[in-house]
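Structure ticket #2291
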Amino acid sequence: PALAQRSDRRRRKARRAAAAAPIEPPAAAEQPTEPELSRTERARAELQPLQPEERPPVIYVASAVAVLLGLANLILGIAAGAGAPDLVPAIVLLALMGVSAYGTWNLRYWGVLTMQAVLGISIVFSALFLIAPQPLTTTLAFVALIGLFGWIFWKLVKIMARIQMPNRPTG
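Resolution: structure written out below.
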């Protein structure tokens, strides 16, 4: 019994000490270190806003890919012998890809973002097709698609940053 009373007293004492201790606020998120901060600032300083008629080469490629993906889907639907009701999704996708191509071509943020979403989804599905056994040519085609779409996606990230930039006053 004496042993049980001592452990009870210790627990009560520990609870009182914990209640009396000041409550510390949770640790704030770590601030970036100096090298990281300066690297980020340098990258932002190097970005220049896109000029009104400036179109980087990746914009041409992304717009063409959007149109080609929409047309390829429609052509595959027709070639598969789909009837008029079965072609509705292919026509809707063609329209969406056309809108995405238009937005990308005109350097609209939503257009480039939509194109990146399509590229990301295409990369994931291409990678999923590689899970099943495929002939070598099919495997190489999917790997090439993943590489091309990944490259376009990566290049569009910087374009999106340049589209978002406010025009800086000159002089």
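Closing remark: The radius of gyration is 28 Å.
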